[in-house]
């Protein structure tokens, strides 16, 4: 849900629809747990609170502790072996990969064309 200033209306709408859909699915799963008599409403409520607190703690841990370590972790030999790289500073990784791959394909096509002549 990275916020950008130049996001289009449909992008923003899609993000909110997706969030609403996921929250709806979570509620339906919670309801089904009570309906099927696996849990009571209080168990589902406490489980939701515990899960929410754990999610917030995990988010804070990854943002404040792990994110500053990403460049060092990406430089480890094992990370280089598995082609792990730090893309935390790139706001839209999918678009970045697309444009870089397209540019590389054009360069290789151009080089191949000059070799054939």
TrEMBL record:
Question: Domain of life of the organism in this record?
Answer: Eukaryota
InterPro entries in the record, alphabetically?
PAP2/HPO, PAP2/HPO_sf
* Broad class of enzyme this protein falls into: hydrolase
* One Pfam family named in its UniProt record: PAP2
Q: In which pathway does it act?
A: Protein modification; protein glycosylation
GO BP: protein N-linked glycosylation
Answer yes or no on keyword NAD. no
Q: Which GO terms describe its cellular component?
A: endoplasmic reticulum membrane
One of the entry's Gene Ontology molecular-function terms is:
dolichyldiphosphatase activity
Question: Which reaction does this enzyme catalyse, per its entry?
Answer: a di-trans,poly-cis-dolichyl diphosphate + H2O = a di-trans,poly-cis-dolichyl phosphate + phosphate + H(+)
Q: What is the membrane topology listed in the Swiss-Prot or TrEMBL record?
A: Multi-pass membrane protein
EC annotation from Swiss-Prot or TrEMBL:
3.6.1.43
Does Nucleotidyltransferase appear among the keywords?
Answer: no
State the compartments where it is located: Endoplasmic reticulum membrane
Residues forming the Phosphatidic acid phosphatase type 2/haloperoxidase domain are: 11-63
Keywords of this entry: Endoplasmic reticulum, Hydrolase, Membrane, Transmembrane, Transmembrane helix
- Transmembrane segments in this chain: where? 12-32, 44-62
What functional role does this protein have? Required for efficient N-glycosylation. Necessary for maintaining optimal levels of dolichol-linked oligosaccharides. Hydrolyzes dolichyl pyrophosphate at a very high rate and dolichyl monophosphate at a much lower rate. Does not act on phosphatidate.
* Similarity comment: family membership: Belongs to the dolichyldiphosphatase family.
Q: What is this protein called?
A: Dolichyldiphosphatase 1
């Amino acid at each position: 849900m990275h916020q950008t200033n130049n996001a289009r209306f449909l992008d923003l709408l899609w993000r909110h629809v997706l969030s609403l859909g996921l929250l709806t699915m979570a509620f339906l799963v919670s309801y089904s747990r009570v309906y099927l008599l696996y849990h009571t409403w209080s168990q589902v409520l406490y489980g939701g609170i515990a899960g929410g607190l754990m999610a917030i703690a995990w988010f804070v841990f990854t943002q404040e502790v792990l994110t500053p370590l990403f460049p060092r972790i990406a430089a480890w030999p094992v990370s280089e072996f598995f082609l792990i790289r730090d893309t935390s500073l790139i706001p839209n990784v999918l678009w970045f990969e697309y444009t870089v791959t397209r540019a590389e394909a054009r360069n290789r096509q151009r080089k191949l064309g000059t070799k054939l002549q």
